[in-house]
Amino acid sequence: MAKRNLPLYDVDKAVGPKKPNLDQDVQLIRQLLIKLQQGGDPLTAGIPPVAATGPFDAALGAAILQYQTNGVKRGFRMVADGVIDPLPSRSGGVGDSDATFSSGAFSTLFAMDVRLFRINRPVYLALGDQLNLPWTPDPFKIGS
Questions:
Q1: Residue ranges of the domains in the chain?
Q2: pTM here?
Q3: Which residues contact 128 (CB under 8 A, 6 or more apart)?
């Protein structure tokens, strides 16, 4: 299940061709791309409008690949493979996300999170509520 990993959004399983493509993970990626397009993120240049709902399909795969390709052209060390992996972790602990995988590749999801946060912070923060994503860890949990 997709989740909020303070302060980043994360997916539980990879989204892309021949990947698990869990529904909530796919919806998170769709919405991030849509919001980035609406905000004018240059990494969305050339990407046709993304459908707001639906399972992973070839159009979403092409949008992810174009986003990554645009990122590579702008100097990000992303891997342009059309796959969005869960955020890399420094120690494997919850809430301990990093921007770079051990291979040195830059996380596409990290880029999407940070870029939308910078483009339109209120839209970014509201996205988790819109998709009903749980907080991980839950900062509002009382008495544990």
A1: 3-130
A2: 0.87
A3: 4, 9, 135
Q: What is the mean pLDDT of each run of 10 residues along the chain (144 residues)?
A: 72 96 98 98 96 97 98 95 89 59 90 94 92 72 56
How many whole angstroms separate alpha carbon 110 and alpha carbon 100? 9
Give the DSSP letter of residue 18: T
**CA-closest candidate to residue 31, choices 63, 58, 7:** 63
Q: Indicate the pairing of strand 8-10 with strand 3-5.
A: antiparallel
CB 115 within 8 A of CB 43: yes
Could you give the count of Cα atoms lying within 13 Å of 37 in the half-sphere of its Cβ? 18
Task: Give the C-alpha separation, 89 to 18, whole Å.
Answer: 23
Using an 8 Å Cβ cutoff, are 95 and 136 in contact?
yes
DSSP 27-83: HHHHHHHHHHHHTT-GGGTTPPPPPSSSS--HHHHHHHHHHHHHHHHTT-----SS-
